[in-house]
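Customer escalation, tier 2.

The customer says the design service returned an amino acid string that "doesn't look like it belongs to this structure." They asked us to rerun it and document both sides in this ticket. The original structure tokens are below, unchanged.
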């Protein structure tokens, strides 16, 4: 079954190289995600980081993106998209190398603040990379193959993430603190370097794609004063909010905010309430991505039957189960169970939502549209990363997780109704 899924017969010859390198890019990204990225918040918690500091690890990069996403989109429009994606990935992923040396230089609190500062700087190239990769993916893969390619990428991500997460948990249990984390961060940097290597070989297809969404009408000739007053609006591309894509961005604002509010609370609950060790956390993460792997094999079939829109909405609503189940979990076995449920649902969301967005962006103006989506997503990361721990401080961890789960359910239903 997996061989037929990984190698369908309908992939055009000019697209096969792109598919192969996109698959390997994601496989190595799974190594990065299952090691350095996966255990960063846990490392910060073990250093004694507060909930606010853990939130800042994500919020700083989001703040950078809010400031430069629109300029980054305009910068990408003037350059070959594949080269821009490669070089921004190199600059961004160089930051992971610096994580390795921090324990040799700083005390615990110094490391926490240094990680926050490094993530802030990494957010500069990451902003252009996030916008550029989505545009490159759309130009490198035909629309009818995107669900399949995304599904295969998610399968490979799941496999490498599971293996790396288990190995990382074993290393952290075997080696003393913080040496174990330095080894894990080194593994992550190696995965990041190889992921960028394969991104270098992904090229846009020569055949242009028809616009997927209407673009604003060209305005009538304006007077000099009117032109001057509209200059800043043109630079910011505020016209995008007057297209159907503006409604979609509002829907994803609700989704990403509900999603991000819970993320900084998860490691606090797992470490401080459930008191799981690194091995148990690694096993839970491996189970999560095993479930993602299984769910991803059915993604193409579900999308053909329901559409990217409906799969996204149902998946977002289903994401409510993870925080709600966690709020009543006290043991490792319960953590494993909710990880399985969360992984199955995340397979739907992660495989469908980006393709749903790409379906609603015009091919001839995609970087500008994706830049605005990136602004919305990162505004939610910033707000959620800061507000999530504050809400948890006021309500308690369990009550906050239930609240965030309900918000995810409402966001999914909203996408289904108005998306």
């Amino acid at each position: 079954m997996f061989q037929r899924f990984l190698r369908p017969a309908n992939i055009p010859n000019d697209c096969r190289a792109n598919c192969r390198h996109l698959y390997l890019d994601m496989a190595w990204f799974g190594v990065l995600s299952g090691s350095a990225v996966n255990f960063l918040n846990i490392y910060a918690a073990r250093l004694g980081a507060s909930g606010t500091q853990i939130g800042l690890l994500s919020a700083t990069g989001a703040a950078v993106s809010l400031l430069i996403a629109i300029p980054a989109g305009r910068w990408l429009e003037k350059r070959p998209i594949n080269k821009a994606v490669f070089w921004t990935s190199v600059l961004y992923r160089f930051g992971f190398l610096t994580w390795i040396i921090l324990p040799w230089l700083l005390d615990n609190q110094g490391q926490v603040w240094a990680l926050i500062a490094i993530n802030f700087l990494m957010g500069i190239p990451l902003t252009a990379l996030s916008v550029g990769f989505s545009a490159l993916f759309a130009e490198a893969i035909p629309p009818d193959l995107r669900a399949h390619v995304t599904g295969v990428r998610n399968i490979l991500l799941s496999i490498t993430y599971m293996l790396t997460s288990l190995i990382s948990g074993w290393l952290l249990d075997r080696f003393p603190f913080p040496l174990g984390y330095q080894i894990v961060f080194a593994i992550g940097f190696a995965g990041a370097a190889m992921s960028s290597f394969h991104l270098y070989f992904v090229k846009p297809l020569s055949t242009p794609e028809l616009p997927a969404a209407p673009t604003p009408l060209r305005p009538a000739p304006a007077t000099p004063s009117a032109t001057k007053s509209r200059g800043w609006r043109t630079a910011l591309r505020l016209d995008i909010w007057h297209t159907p894509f503006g409604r979609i961005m509002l829907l994803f604002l609700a989704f990403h905010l509900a999603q991000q509010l819970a993320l900084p609370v998860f490691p606090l609950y797992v470490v401080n309430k459930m008191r799981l060790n690194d091995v148990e956390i690694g096993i839970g993460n491996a189970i999560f991505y095993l479930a993602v792997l299984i769910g991803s094999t059915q993604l193409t079939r579900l999308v053909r039957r329901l559409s990217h829109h409906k799969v996204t909405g149902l998946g977002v609503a289903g994401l409510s189960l993870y925080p709600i189940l966690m709020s009543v979990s006290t043991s490792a076995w319960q953590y494993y169970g909710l990880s399985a449920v969360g992984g199955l649902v995340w397979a739907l969301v992660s495989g469908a939502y980006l393709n749903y967005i790409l379906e609603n962006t015009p091919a001839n103006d995609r970087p500008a549209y994706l830049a605005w989506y990136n602004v919305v997503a990162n505004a939610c990361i910033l707000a959620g990363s800061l507000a999530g721990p504050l809400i948890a401080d006021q309500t308690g961890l369990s009550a906050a997780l239930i609240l965030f789960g309900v918000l995810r359910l409402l966001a999914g239903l909203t996408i289904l109704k108005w998306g």
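Tier 2 assessment: The sequence is consistent with the input. Residues 15-205+240-418 form a domain with the Growth Hormone; Chain: A; fold (CATH 1.20.1250.20). The chain is about 80% helix and 0% strand. Sent an explanation to the customer and offered a walkthrough call.
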